[in-house]
User: What shape does this take?
Amino acid sequence: MTLKYYWEDFPVGDKRHAGPVAVRAEEIVDFARKFDPQDFHIDEELARHSRFGTLIASGWHVCALAMRLICDGFLLESAGLGSPGVDKVRWKQPVRPGDALSLDALVLEARRSESRPGVGLVRWHWDITNQLGQSVAELETTGMVRCRNTA
Assistant: This one.
């Protein structure tokens, strides 16, 4: 595969959009049974009697969906080298079956690595929104990306 994006293609202020992806009840339950088996994620009847009133996706499921959106949107076409981690995660509103999530990514910082020539660091702010434009989650994360120009 030919790579389209290198560190130089992600300047501060750059914005990327990805999505939407539909959230289905079956996927909510399947993910939660494996990783976050709280009642309001795995049982529709018990979820109806919870403070949410309906089945909701695990926040970790929302993060996984966000990662999928980023991958499909541009990351798989980049010279990505992984990530040293996520600095901030905020779950702002419940994600329910039938929601359609999109992601807007904003470059907050872009700098070359001081210790690894040819590697750039990109710090992102991700805003995940539903079909109504409501922000349901936010993440701040850093990615490592190969530089096109190593000089």
About this structure: The helical segments are 25-35, 39-42, 44-48, 59-73. The longest strand covers residues 100-112.
